[in-house]
Amino acid sequence: MEGANSVPEELLGSYAANHRCHRPGISRPEMASAYTDMADTYDETLRPGVYNGPVLAAETAASRVDESRRASVRVMDVAAGTGRVGYELHLRGFRNMDALDPSEGMMQKLESRGLYTNKYTQFVGLGQSAVPSDTYDFVIVAGGMGEGHIPVEGLDDMIDMAKPGGEVIIVMRKEYLDYVEEYKDKLEPYMDQLSQKGKWTKVERKIVPNYSYQKDGVIFIYKVK
């Protein structure tokens, strides 16, 4: 398994279960189906401490907006899974949240939280989207980048969802930039191309420890023009 050599032995079982959704060559429909199969055990398998992406994403968003405004800003949670990001955002005062995820099983778990207004069961970056344009103050992705997950062209969809002046926050495992074929030498250059085209501007690129399985993560923040 890619990346398993640095995972603590006690977390290898969890890592293997998650890797089934990230295995090399997995298609996007297969990925969505794998998450549906994992939906009942996902929150325990990737519990806080093992996977900290939702907390990092929520803390990042909270740092970008005054507490007095959090209840009114609109948030799109992309690759929302079981709604962990929404839960962490809610703890920090956010109330106006929508969700998108291609896995029907994960979306059923998300609905049970009762935190999201509009829910879209669809992929990102593969063509037409039902999500309205120029709508969100924050478009947040935590854990949605990986083998067979969001393609680099998904960034265009995220920009389209955001209001002018809105922000896109992407939280992902740093090592995916090194060995996921779809991202290696492609994701960050594509981000730069979008900047050069005047689509957005980079606010921050930050490496953070213990994103998942005690591995580093990277947080990207971009402001949409």
Structure description:
The chain is an alpha/beta fold. The chain has helices at residues 12-19, 28-45, 53-63, 84-91, 104-111, 154-161, 176-179, 187-196, and strands spanning 74-78, 96-100, 119-120, 136-142, 162-173, 200-212, 215-224. A hairpin with a 2-residue loop joins β6 and β7.
List keywords for this structure.
Rossmann fold, seven-stranded mixed β-sheet, 33% helix, alpha/beta, globular, 225 residues
Question: What's the structural blueprint in terms of helices and strands?
Answer:
Layout: H1 12-19, H2 28-45, H3 53-63, E1 74-78, H4 84-91, E2 96-100, H5 104-111, E3 119-120, E4 136-142, H6 154-161, E5 162-173, H7 176-179, H8 187-196, E6 200-212, E7 215-224
Parallel strand pairs: 1-2, 1-4, 2-3, 4-5
Antiparallel strand pairs: 5-7, 6-7
Helix pairs in contact: 2-5, 3-4
Helix residue percentage:
25-40%
Q: What portion of the residues fall into strands of 2 or more residues?
A: 15-25%
What fold name goes in the CATH topology slot? Rossmann fold
CATH architecture descriptor: 3-Layer(aba) Sandwich
In the CATH hierarchy, what is the class? Alpha Beta
Unreliable spans: none
| Continuous helix count | 8
Instruction: Report the end-to-end length measured between terminal Cα atoms.
Output: 40 Å
Oligomeric status = single chain
The total domain count is 1
CATH superfamily: Vaccinia Virus protein VP39
User: How many distinct beta strands?
Assistant: 7
Order of helices and strands: HHHEHEHEEHEHHEE
Q: Give the overall silhouette.
A: globular
Largest beta sheet, briefly? Answer: 7 strands, mixed
Mean pLDDT: 97
- Strand numbers in spatial order across the main sheet: 3-2-1-4-5-7-6
Rg over CA atoms: 16 Å
